[in-house]
Design goal:
It is a single chain. The chain is of the alpha+beta class. It folds into three domains: 85 residues, Beta-Lactamase, CATH 3.30.450; 74 residues, Helix Hairpins; 147 residues, Histidine kinase-like ATPase, C-terminal domain (Heat Shock Protein 90). The chain contains nine helices and ten strands. A five-stranded mixed sheet has the order 5-7-8-10-9. The radius of gyration is 29 Å and the shape is elongated. The model has no long low-confidence stretch (mean pLDDT 89). The site of adenosine-5'-diphosphate has 19 residues, from helix 7 and helix 9.
Length: 325
C-alpha cells in the first residue's frame, strides 16, 4: 500500500528510473527484489496470521539489514488489518561492532604479554645460563645438540620479545635520523641471510632524503621483519629490493620481492596478530610493523600480484618542524 522515501532510494539503486507506481499494490516479491524475499515473506505471513511481531537479520551481497514485521491492528477489536515491514540498514553498525571486537582482542594480547614476561622469560634465562655451563663441561661430540637447543631457546625468546613490543603501548623516544643510514646498517645482515638462501638483494637508497623523526631500534626491527618475510616468501633465485622514494610530504620505503604474492583473502588479515601461513611462524611480525608505524605517525600498505610478487610500502611523514642539516 505504501513505501517511504528511503525505500524508494534503495529501490532506485538498481533501477534509476523506478517510480512508486512500480511498487504500490504489487506483489511483495517484486517489491523486495534484491533482499531475502523468502524470509521476509514468511515473517509477513506470521505477522498477518498470528498477529505477532518478528525480527530478522538479512544479508545482501555487501550490506546487512535488520528487518522487523509488525501487525497493524484495529484499536478496539484487535483485528489484524495488515502488516508493516521495517528494514534498517545496519551495515555500519555491524562494521563498528567487528572493529570493537578487534580492539578488545588487541587489549587481551597486552594483558597476556605482561604475564608471559614474568612467567616464561625468567625461567628461560636460568635454563639458558645452566645450559651454557653444561656446554662448556661437555664433550665436543655434544656440541651440535647444544647448538640446536640454544638456537631454539633464542627463537622462543625472540617470539616473546616481539610479543612484548607489540603489546606494550609504550612511548618510544624519537630522534632525527637518516633512513638510509639505518637501512645501511642492516644490509650486511640481510645479505648474509639472502646468501644462505641463494637469493639476491638490491638496495637503492636516497642519501639526500631529509631527516626523519624515528626510533632507530624500531625501524631496524621493521625493516628486518619486512625483509625476512620477503625472503621467506621467495624460493631460490628470488630477488629482494629495498628502495627509498622521496615524496612531497615524506619518504617512502619500498620492500619488494619476487615471491608468489598474497591471495586477496589473506591480504585483509596480514596485520592481525597471530595471522600466519607458516608452520613455524608467529604471525606477530606484521602486526608489530603496523604498531611501529602507528607510533611514527606513518602508514604501511601492501600491493601484491599473485605469481609476480609483493611490495610493502612504508610511509614516513616529514617531522613537523623540518630540520635541514
Ligand atoms: P610470520 O612471518 O610469523 O608468518 P608475519 O606477521 O610477519 O608473521 O606475516 C604474516 C603472514 O603474511 C605470513 O605468514 C605470510 O603468509 C604473509 N606474508 C607476509 N609477507 C609476505 C610476502 N612478502 N609475500 C607473501 N606473503 C607474505
Ligand atoms: Mg614474519
Amino acid at each position: 500500500m505504501s513505501v517511504n522515501d528511503t525505500f524508494m532510494q534503495f529501490y532506485r539503486l538498481n533501477r534509476p528510473n523506478g517510480t512508486r507506481e512500480d511498487l504500490i499494490r504489487k506483489e511483495l516479491e517484486k517489491v523486495l527484489q534484491g533482499l531475502d524475499y523468502e524470509i521476509v515473506a514468511s515473517r509477513k505471513e506470521q505477522t498477518l496470521e498470528g498477529n505477532v511481531k518478528t525480527s530478522q537479520i538479512l544479508q545482501s551481497a555487501d550490506r546487512v539489514y535488520y528487518a522487523t514485521t509488525s501487525p497493524i491492528t484495529k484499536m478496539h477489536t484487535n483485528e489484524n488489518i495488515g502488516s508493516v515491514i521495517i528494514i534498517q540498514d545496519i551495515t555500519e553498525l555491524e562494521a563498528l561492532r567487528m572493529e570493537l571486537n578487534h580492539v578488545e582482542r588487541l587489549g587481551l594480547v597486552g594483558q597476556m604479554a605482561a604475564s608471559i614476561t614474568h612467567e616464561i622469560r625468567n625461567p628461560m634465562a636460568v635454563v639458558r645460563g645452566f645450559l651454557q655451563l653444561m656446554r662448556e663441561k661437555s664433550p665436543a661430540s655434544l656440541e651440535h645438540y647444544y647448538r640446536i637447543v640454544m638456537e631454539e631457546l633464542d627463537r622462543a625468546n625472540g617470539i616473546i620479545n616481539d610479543f612484548l613490543s607489540l603489546a606494550q603501548n609504550r612511548v618510544v623516544k624519537m630522534e632525527l635520523y637518516r633512513l638510509h643510514e639505518i637501512i645501511s646498517e642492516l644490509t650486511p645482515l640481510l645479505w648474509a641471510d639472502a646468501n644462505l638462501r641463494g637469493q639476491s638483494i638490491e638496495v637503492r637508497l636516497d642519501e639526500n632524503a631529509p631527516l626523519l623523526m624515528l626510533n632507530h631500534k624500531e625501524i631496524k626491527q621493521l625493516v628486518l621483519n619486512l625483509g625476512r618475510n620477503a625472503m621467506e616468501a621467495m624460493g631460490e633465485k628470488g630477488n629482494l629490493i629495498l628502495e627509498m622514494k622521496r615524496q612531497s610530504d615524506g619518504v617512502e620505503l619500498y620492500v619488494t620481492d619476487t615471491g608468489p604474492g598474497i591471495p586477496p583473502a589473506q591480504k585483509e588479515r596480514l596485520f592481525e596478530p597471530f595471522f600466519t601461513t607458516k608452520s613455524k611462524g608467529t604471525g606477530l611480525g606484521l602486526s608489530l610493523c603496523l604498531s611501529i608505524m602507528e607510533r611514527h605517525g606513518g602508514r604501511i600498505n601492501v600491493e601484491s600480484e599473485e605469481g609476480l610478487g609483493t611490495t610493502f610500502i612504508v610511509f614516513f611523514p616529514f617531522a613537523s618542524e623540518r630540520v635541514e642539516v
